[in-house]
Amino acid sequence: MTELSPSAQTVLDAANMVFSQAGTTAQGIAAALRAAADQAAPELPHSELGDPEILKGIWGERRACRAELLAIATELEGFND
Q1: What is the pLDDT of residues 37-66, one digit of tens each?
Q2: DSSP letters for 38-75
Q3: Each residue of 57-81: b (16+ CB within 10 Å) or e?
Q4: How many angstroms separate the CA atoms of 15 and 17, rounded?
Q5: Which one of 28, 38, 45, 46 is separated from 64 by 20 to 30 angstroms, measured CA to CA?
Q6: What is the dihedral of CA 57, 61, 64, 66, to 10 degrees?
Q7: Taking a C-beta distance cutoff of 8 angstroms, is the pair 37, 14 a contact?
């Protein structure tokens, strides 16, 4: 494989930026997780009252996935390796 998808490249760029700035491994992984969260589960608006139930469920799952990724990133940012 010679070229990454735009999403994968965004995650790689985030990690490389932190590592090149003398960041720790945990900081680089945290940056990559934040970039992955932005690519895979972008922040979405909350459901509207008239939205179909399936759409509300999908948005809720995306928000939960994003929150879990960001929680791991936050934990790693506080870790000194």
Answers
A1: 988 888 876 667 777 888 878 888 888 999
A2: HHHS---PPPPTTS-HHHHHHHHHHHHHHHHHHHHHHH
A3: eebeebeeebeebbeebeebbeeee
A4: 5
A5: 28
A6: -130
A7: no
pTM exceeding the 0.85 threshold for the entire prediction: no
pLDDT per residue over 13-45, tens digit each?
877 777 777 567 777 888 888 988 988 888 876
Q: Which of helix, strand or coil describes residue 26?
A: helix
- What the block records as the tokens of 44 is 């979405």
Place of tokens 């995650």: 11
